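User: Fold this; tokens only.

Assistant: Input:
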Amino acid sequence: MQLKPLQDRVVALKEEPMTQTKSGILLGEAKEAPAYAVVESVGPDVKTVKEGDKIITKDYSTTSVKIDDKEYIIVKEEDILATL
């Protein structure tokens, strides 16, 4: 099943935040930590991101959807903070 976003919405596959660095240092969890995700599909009005882009958003600005044990987020284009 593929989610088709409408207007200026973006559907992205959520990535789990790192809990440990490569050298083994445990990382704490920030209250409003940014969410990382990979863009799966974009709506027809989206102009700045494309499929495959890695994006950063704030958790409170997204809608989470779980399909087939994968967690997706739906976010408005204006709520995307940056691309990597």
